[in-house]
Structure formats: C-alpha cells, structure tokens
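S.,

Sequence below, as promised.
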Amino acid sequence: QILVILIVILFSIGIGFSLFEQVGNSLLNFPTPRFSEGKFQPGTTTITDILKYGLNFELPQIKRFISANLGFAIGLISLFIAFYLWHRAGKNKLSVFIINTYLIIGFILSPLLHLGESTINCQQDIILSHENLGNYLAEIVPANSLVYWDGGNAYTPMIYVPHARIFPPQINNGYTYHIGGDPDTLYYFSHWNSELDARWRSEADIFIIEAKRYPNWKDFLNPLEFQEFPKPTASPACSEGAELRIFQRIP
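The prediction came back faster than expected:
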C-alpha cells in the first residue's frame, strides 16, 4: 500500500512537471498573500515574485515548480478521495481502490490537460503556415545572424533560414533546460542552463519570441536597443498567443 501511494505521488508530480510549458500568465500572476517577518502584510503579491525574489528562481524554474506542485496537489487530492471512498465501502483492497480511483480521476481531468482531445481545434493548414513563416524569416533575418529562439516548441520555421546561426540546445526548448550544472558539459550534450542563457542573450542578434511569452521579455527588449520587425501573418500553432514577434539588436 505504501508503494502504491508513493507511485501515485511520484507519478502525479511527474505529470505536472511535464506540463510546465502549459503554465501561463494566469498562474504566474496568481495573487497570494504577502508574508514577511513572521506575519501577514497588507496587500498581495504573485507566486512569480515570491519565487523570483525570495528563492532566486528564474522563469523556467518557476514554471517547473508551479506545475510539479500542482501535480503533487492533485495526487494528494486523489489519495484523499480514494481513502474516503474506501472507508465508506470497506470491501476492496486499499491498493486496488487507490489505483482505480486515480485512473478514474485522471480520465475525468484529461480534457482539462488537453489529453485525449477528440474535437478539431485547429482550422488552419499548419504545414503551410510553417512554410510561410519560414519564408518570412528567410527574408528578414540577415545572413550570418545569431538567432535566439523563444518561439515555442515549433522550431521547424528555422529550417528555412539556413544562413542564420542558432543555439542548437534551443531546438528542444525548455525540455533540455537544467538547473545548475557545468555549462560546457551541458552544451556538449545539447542541454543548457541559466549561465548559457545569459551568454546567448548577450550575443544574439535576432530574438524570436512567442507572443504569450513577450511579457517576460518586455524589460529586456528595450526599444532603445532593439527594433521589432513587422509581425508575420502566419502563426506556427493554433493556440492563442502562439504568434511570433521578431526583434533585432540595434548595432
């Protein structure tokens, strides 16, 4: 029974952790009470500010922390429901009851996590959109430019820009991001961390940013230092905020 409970908890944390890319501004800016010096303070703050200034977390770490803890919370709630129902039924083995309850809750929550989606949620031709977007990037990105990518998971438009230089670990976006570690070793295995990220930001000529991520870049992309290209008409995905914004460092 203890093993089953541990599996449920670890599995829930793992599922939550894997969905960190789904953490949007609504969660990042979720208001929380202010607490300092052992007591609650007037007003509210956000989870992002608490983790950023209290624990020195960076945005990728914040998203992972939030998503993993949401998974942990769902796991605990599932166990609580299983114990409650088992106590009332009092017939089946507890371990079997926990597994069945967990699977049922997972089935119920799957539409909320966009798992098992059965309806058409995209009317555009994604392949054509990627081609159009790639052609647009090929026109505006100067030859030999160093491109920083924070444009989401759809890296394929960059295939159409062979004359640009890239940071290869960014092809897999946040999935190869590590907390800490030796930057040279990580880069050798096509992974990256905050140190490499800071280095790339200082070196890149072109920044390609997913629209919904732009609020996190607003301070960095100062209009006095960067100019924005006209927004492309094509979008790499159907989800809201998937449009790309492209900036060039002013010489």
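The first strand starts at residue 31 and ends at 36.

Coffee later?
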